[in-house]
Cytochrome b5 heme-binding domain-containing protein
Amino acid sequence: MYQELTLAEVAKHNTKDIYIVIRNKVYNVTSFVDDHPGSADILIDIAGQDCTEAYDDAGHSDEAHEILPELEIGKLSAADAITKASLVPQVVSNVTKPVHEAIGNVLKPNVFQESELQEKTEVSHNVTIYRFKLPPEDSILSLPIGQHISGLITQHLAGLEIGDYIRVRGPKGAFTYTQNMVRHFGMIAGGTGLTPMLQIIRTIVRGRPDGDKTEVDFIFANVNEKDILLRQELEQIAKDNSGIRIHHVLNNPPEGWTGGVGFVNADMISKWLPAPADDIKILLCGPPPMISAMKNITESLGYQKARSVSKLEDQIFAF
């Protein structure tokens, strides 16, 4: 039966049965919790809430949009319904425009554009770098890290040949870097989780002449030394910029290794990353088990508790 519910009534459904609100419509997502590709924790964390912004930021697939109507059970009461006007983002005049805006919005969040694969380089047994051509020759394609290593997109990319085309749109996501947004970043990444970290580090370095003073301490975890992606570039950046430091951690270190050994732990975080403070942020990117462990460890060290779905204002932000 289709219902009209208040936000207070929706909020009661946050344990065994999970209700959420998206654009003033109420959905019972209980049956979908275990099937959510981003983990059950994400839906559990937003249970009983209006998650319109989080849903839009995640850039859901067409399949996700098709599933929603099947889960719809009602709408918000007129008193609680959010007007369209309240959903329009407010302009903040003193915030530096993000890189993707500064280059003229080559990509558009809701419009697909064709992009040609020009180069495909196998870096290791499980890592490949893809370089795509964009419409203007001097444009930059900023790609966020993929979350599903064995997913359909990864499999599709693996089958591409030079000269093949893909259709892309974006950017989407909750993280936009602006100069000096924090005093100090602490970063923890595993394997290809390097992607957003390096993108931010490069942006900080490019902003140095314009006054970007952001410091970075980056813990980069890998299994073997040969798995360290773009190591030469990372270490050159650290060499040329005193405010940027790279800390390597390996599960299987070679003889004579002087970096960290094993899994990233509380001692490493306490030693290398900035202590909890209002003007720091810890960024995480890697396999789900690693992210879960890092969230628990950082909370035990006094950092703010991480949400399952990160927001830009969070002290602990997971890509």
